[in-house]
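Workshop exercise sheet. Pairs work together: one partner reads the sequence aloud, the other fills in the structure field after running the prediction. Swap roles for the next sheet.
Pair: D.N. / O.F.
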Amino acid sequence: MKEWISISLILCTFGFFREMRPNEPFVVEFLSNGVWRNVTSEQLNREIYPFGTYSYLIQLCVVFMVTDILRYKPIIIASACVGIVMWALLLWTKTLAWLYVVQICYGFFMASEVAYYTYIYAKVPKEKYQRVTGYTRASLLTGRFLAGVLAQILVSFSLMNVRELNYISFGTQIISFGVSLMLPAVGVSLYMWKIEDVESKDGREVEVSSKDIKPKFSWDRASKLLWSHFIVSYSNRTVLIYSIWWALSTAGYLQIISYVQLLWQEIDPDQENFYNGGVEASLTLFGALSASLGGHILQDSFQKYDILLLTVCSFLQGGLTLVSIWTSNIWIAYIMYVLVGIVYNFIITLVTAFVAKFLSDDSFALIFGINTLVALAVQTLSTIIFVTETASFKLTPKEQFFVFSIYFFILGAVYMIAGIVKFFKKK
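Structure field:
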């Protein structure tokens, strides 16, 4: 079997079990119902979730720096270990203090995704990037979809309660740890570890056996290459414009998926229609289909109507979010959430593919990481301003979603103005 195929199989298996976390659609119910933990929805909203956002941002900065130095695999293994610890804490601890520790673990667990994605670029041949990226993305979505379906079936038929779902997540993280050990080690990384040309005394390059070639660590060389990729990439006006939208739109979407269960709880406090798992499964399925549709649209067609699409999709996200807070019907709120996800997955696929056209192969992981970092920074700032106990506004979930809707409307208006300016410049 070719090496890139075996690596793809291992990565896909790891990603599938990593995402197989059926407890997550019901995590708010598990934490706040008072049976297993003495935590209120208000504490989750004001204290626990904001702390998790800060933890994610800080640890992403660290993981982003050390992933290349440690050459990916150790970070992937560490993320699986942290997943095991995190679900053990959810199952067998009860105090609020331990819940903060869980948020720290979750921050690292999510931040370490950067190692999973960049491992591909360091270990797989460049001509196979697109195929392997597609396979790994499909495995993640499959795991997430099946987790949602399984969770809904088990809860709806009273085969498991929302606490017992954590046992399945705990087991899948143990499996993912075992799979992560099978990943081949990385010799040459994208930046820190490179193979230097061997020269003879007269300055000519010398051919050496591959067994004799060992990658060397160089911070000086890596920092110059990082800076060069950063400057060249963001000096491109197209990359900059799309990266700004990418980061800002992702920040808004992250806020929505982080707090949506609290919104549903406010709309339907008695939880007479408790279908969070089915909704998350639907979002994953239709989000994958919309992403696939976005991936098949010709880039030339997108470039022709780029600003228009960004504007319309931003307004759509704002409008759908607004409807979800105006309704008192949980089913409408569910549908609006799925539609927001469909729109986001469709347009973000187009944007990332379009940005990648203007980047060198080695710099895509860097730009992807920086844009994600900016998105998290914006999310953290909005959390500090609107959500936390010390925030100026201390908004309820419905009020937060109203702010998110206005945020998307403003984003759409900015790009609409940019589109008008672009149109008259052409004229």
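Discussion prompt: Residues 237-267 form the longest helix (31 residues). What would you look at next?
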